[in-house]
Design a protein that fits this description.
alpha/beta, Rossmann fold, UDP-N-acetylmuramoyl-L-alanine:D-glutamate ligase, 11-stranded mixed β-sheet, 18 helices, 41% helix, binds ligand NPW, binds potassium ion, metal-binding, NADP, nucleotide-binding, Bifunctional NAD(P)H-hydrate repair enzyme, EC 4.2.1.136
Length: 503
């Protein structure tokens, strides 16, 4: 898992890198510039493209200058640099790179003061150029001055393609994103070493389209020691957590899941959740569906067993219970379930809606419960929030208070553990925005918990693989991914882990 660090921690990691490798800060800046250019080349392969590099006078601006040198060496032949004064003094590495740029034949336009009129007077071809934004990076420490904000608003109206260095100018790395703040909109952001936490909030879409993260060699061992509650899940975590199926094992070794789901007109939700559970490897799955809907289950999923509410808990020990997809009014069984359940619960959809209407039930949630709300379900459960930063903090408080895991679903799903850690899932794409996708996730999480994984492990595995299956289909050309099609990928993805599915 990759720890997400704050703007101030980045500076500590930079200093550590200089000391531990015994390099100068401009050498590290060259490394950052080179990593940036590595991605930039792929984004803008045409070397005749007019490029405008907007530089502030701190280290973000220093990066811009170092980037100009590399791009020129690479054969980009139409580069204009504009220096916009930021702050009280130039940083040393900015001054160092300025000296190097002056020794080359690159056009430099130096604004003596930050003013829209002066900027406009430069007559830059903003609409035809690719603009590299290196005005401000992690050093932003106050709202933008009016004059700089005016320049940025004009650029936002005119520029068709902006590539930001480290982060878009004006964007805050963490904390509440200011709704009225001016930010230089970036079509691409090339960020150093780690993505910034706020890249993962839906509000960031207003300020940026895509981001790339490049390694600049900061010491991972140092980053691992920094305190942070935010982590980005990566494929190595999946390899580490997932256990191969053992030889001589049988269905009894892989758990028995109960799927309490479906109602008249919403049987599909139960079928999808159950199919997901089975395809993720559970040993046994029992579905509690209304009796009259049983034919759909037998026709679609002969592997599943049907149970009725009365007999469900007689002498059966489940290893995980999913509750909610397509339940409608049947969700009122939740209070009884709390008394009868003998396994961790995964509550979704109508189960969450019922929970939000009955205040006292939240306090009665059994240990190890997983809630899987999307934003609206979350707000109904725990109250409204003004923005995603507030919502995430509210989720952390409630996960700790009730000792539960909350899977807050979005483009980047946040898994909030009972300790208040936030694990960010990077996989998934808009082709997956379709009915039934959440039911599939619920089935997968239930399956992993039934197989003996902790709620934390199950949520990491389930969210990552669910999104990865969708990403694979998207890459194969599917503009839309149906949940039942996505589920066909799950056994294949599991089979690819550690290359051998069996011990
Ligand atoms: N550290 C490293 O070794 C490495 C760092 N790297 C790069 O450095 C970047 C961070 O550089 P940084 O710390 O110099 O900050 P940066 O974002 O350039 O801005 C600072 C200047 O802006 C000013 N200022 C602040 N707010 C303002 C506002 N609202 N409006 C106007 N001005 C404002 C502030 O002024 P002051 O507070 O002094 O008045 C100060 O002068 C980082 O994002 C990455 O790109 C990479 O090369 C890798 C190695
Ligand atoms: K920037």
């Amino acid at each position: 898992m990759r720890k997400i660090i704050s703007a101030s921690q980045v500076k500590l990691a930079d200093s550590d890198c200089l000391v531990s490798e015994n390099i100068s800060s401009h050498e590290l800046m060259d490394r950052a510039a080179s990593a940036f250019v590595g991605v930039f080349r792929g984004l803008v392969p045409d070397k005749n493209t007019p490029i405008i590099i907007l530089c502030g006078t701190g280290n973000n601006g220093g990066d811009g200058l170092a980037i100009s040198l590399l791009l020129q060496c690479d054969g980009y032949d139409d580069i204009n640099i504009v220096i916009i004064p930021t702050g009280h003094r130039q940083s040393d590495d900015f001054a160092y790179n300025m000296q190097r740029v002056k020794e080359r034949q690159i056009s430099i336009h130096q604004l003596e003061r930050t003013s829209l009129q002066d900027f406009d007077g430069l007559g830059l071809r903003l609409t035809e150029s690719v603009l590299i934004d290196s005005i401000l990076g992690v050093g932003i420490n106050r709202p933008l001055d009016r004059a700089l904000a005016e320049i940025i608003k004009m650029i936002n109206q005119q520029c068709k393609r902006v590539v930001a260095v480290d982060l878009p100018t004006g964007f805050r790395c963490e904390g509440e994103l200011d709704d009225d703040g001016t930010v230089l909109y970036a079509h691409e952001v090339i960020s150093f070493q780690r993505p910034k936490l706020n890249f993962f909030f839906p509000e960031s879409a207003k300020y940026m389209e895509n981001f790339h993260v490049v390694d600049i060699g900061l010491r991972e061992a140092f980053l691992a020691e920094l305190p942070s509650d935010y982590y980005l899940i990566d494929s190595a975590d999946i390899e580490e957590i997932y256990n191969k199926r053992k030889s001589f094992s049988h269905k009894g070794n892989y758990g028995h899941a109960l799927i309490y789901a479906g109602s008249a007109g919403k049987v599909g939700a139960a079928l999808i959740a159950t199919e997901a559970c089975l395809r993720t490897g559970v040993g046994l799955a029992t579905v509690c569906l209304p009796e009259e809907e049983r034919h759909a289950l037998y026709a679609r999923l002969p592997e599943a067993m049907l149970g009725s509410s009365e007999e469900l808990f007689e002498g059966v020990k489940y290893s995980a219970i999913a509750f909610g997809p397509g339940l409608g009014r049947r969700a009122s069984f939740l209070s009884d379930l709390f008394k009868k359940a003998n396994a961790p619960l995964i509550i979704d959809a109508d189960g969450l809606n019922y929970l939000s209407k009955e205040d006292t039930l939240l306090n009665a949630l059994p240990a190890d419960t997983v809630l899987t709300p999307h934003m609206k379900e979350f707000d109904r459960l725990f109250g409204p929030s003004e923005n995603w930063w507030q919502r995430l903090q509210l989720a952390r408080r409630n996960a700790q208070k009730f000792k539960i895991t909350i899977v807050l679903k979005n483009r980047y799903t946040f898994i909030i553990t009972e300790k208040g850690e936030v694990l960010i899932n990077p996989t998934g794409n808009p082709a997956m925005a379709i009915a039934g996708m959440g039911d599939a996730l619920t089935g997968m999480l239930t399956s992993f918990i039934a197989q003996g994984y902790s709620p934390r492990e199950a949520c990491i595995l389930g969210c990552f693989l669910h999104g990865r299956a969708g990403d694979r289909l998207r890459l194969e050309g599917h503009a839309v991914v149906l949940p039942t099609v996505l589920l066909t990928q799950i056994p294949l993805l599991l089979g690819e882990l550690k290359n051998v599915p069996f011990a």
